[in-house]
Write a structure and sequence with these properties.
The chain has three helices and 13 strands. With 191 residues, the chain is an alpha+beta fold. It has a single domain (4-15, 35-189), classed as Protein Transport Mog1p, Chain A (3-Layer(aba) Sandwich). The longest helix has 14 residues, at 173-186. It starts with a helix and ends with a strand.
């Protein structure tokens, strides 16, 4: 379950990141008082990549429609990635690709740094984390197209996973980190 602070932060993300539309969740008048926007948690599943994540109501999902080969990180909205959109110019992007037996996490992370678009500069430092109990490495990137990105690489079974949260540079980095952390904690492998 998402932490109450993370739910409040996610609820504040009211518009679809790629279209600029306002959230369908609006405060309503009830007996002269306003009700807060719905922050009900919902589970999203990527059938293509075998995971689920719990997000609050303003988030919407578009699952990947084609397999990613793990060689190039795609942009927001790519049909090769599961995309989860929220307001404030934030999008959670995730995918998995087959990896050779014996692949080490550091090697998978290095491949993901090489796979990044040329407009992005990845931080050389990493943070050790877990993703549903599997070892993971997290790092950041700054892109000349105006995005800051929190990235996470993990291995599960015969797949290498890449999860990242691109956000407009104008967004609050501390809020981005809280959102990413709540998403990471709710992430579960299903396959």
């Amino acid at each position: 379950m998402l932490a109450p602070v993370a739910i409040a932060v996610l609820a504040a993300a009211a518009a679809c990141g790629s279209s600029g539309n306002t959230s369908a969740t609006q405060a309503t008048q009830v007996s002269g008082t306003q009700s807060p926007p719905s922050t009900q948690a919902q589970e999203f599943v990527s059938n293509r990549y075998g995971f689920r994540v719990t997000l609050t109501k303003p988030w919407v999902e578009v699952d990947a429609t084609a397999d990613w080969d793990g060689k190039e990180l795609q942009g927001i909205g790519s049909p090769l990635f599961a995309n989860f959109y929220a307001g404030g110019g934030r999008t959670l992007v995730a995918a998995a690709a087959p990896v050779p037996a014996g692949t080490q996490l550091a090697d998978w992370r290095a491949a993901m740094v090489r796979a990044a678009p040329s407009v992005c500069s990845d931080s050389p430092s990493t943070e050790n984390m877990t993703l549903d109990g599997e070892p993971a490495l997290a790092w950041t990137a700054t892109c000349s197209d105006g995005y800051h990105v929190i990235k996470l690489a993990a291995l599960h079974g015969t797949r290498g996973y890449m999860v990242f949260l691109p956000s407009r540079a104008a967004n609050d980095e501390a809020a981005n980190r809280r959102i990413f952390e709540s998403i990471r904690q709710s992430f579960r492998f299903t396959g």
